[in-house]
Amino acid sequence: MKEVLEMHVNMSNRWCGLAEEVFDRLYGLSSLQILDLSANNLLIVSNEIGCLSSLQLQLHLSENKFMSIPNEIGHLSSLQLLDLSDNNFMSMPESISHLSELTELHLFRCSKLQSLPKIVPFNLKHVHAQECPS
């Protein structure tokens, strides 16, 4: 399984959030480039997300129920697109500034988001934050 390049996980038919189990099972995927965990009713982004440092292109975490985003997300330094739309977090960690390759950030309908970090990634070209209060 180490050669998996793209993974879309759909647990939307399950009635419980399995965030820790999902992230625990992804660590050996050293070639993973795109990970889509959208629309799974996940409650937390595991701190272990930082262990996916080889994730290169896209991380889709939209349409879940995240109340916070861990600092460890800043370890994904090769990430180019991060989609956190339709979640419940109020702020983003300062570590997002470590995402040096990030060019696109999706924050659609993050209705509780109050602020973004003052330092944004250098390559960031597009921030999509429609229907956000801040």
UniProtKB/TrEMBL annotation:
SUPFAM superfamilies per the UniProt record, alphabetical: L domain-like
Keywords, in A-Z order: Leucine-rich repeat, Repeat
Domain Disease resistance R13L4/SHOC-2-like LRR: 26-113
Pfam assignment, any one: LRR_14
PROSITE patterns in the record: LRR (PS51450)
TM regions (residue ranges): none
GO cellular component, one term: cytoplasm
Superkingdom field: Eukaryota
Name of the molecule in the record: Putative leucine-rich repeat domain, L domain-containing protein
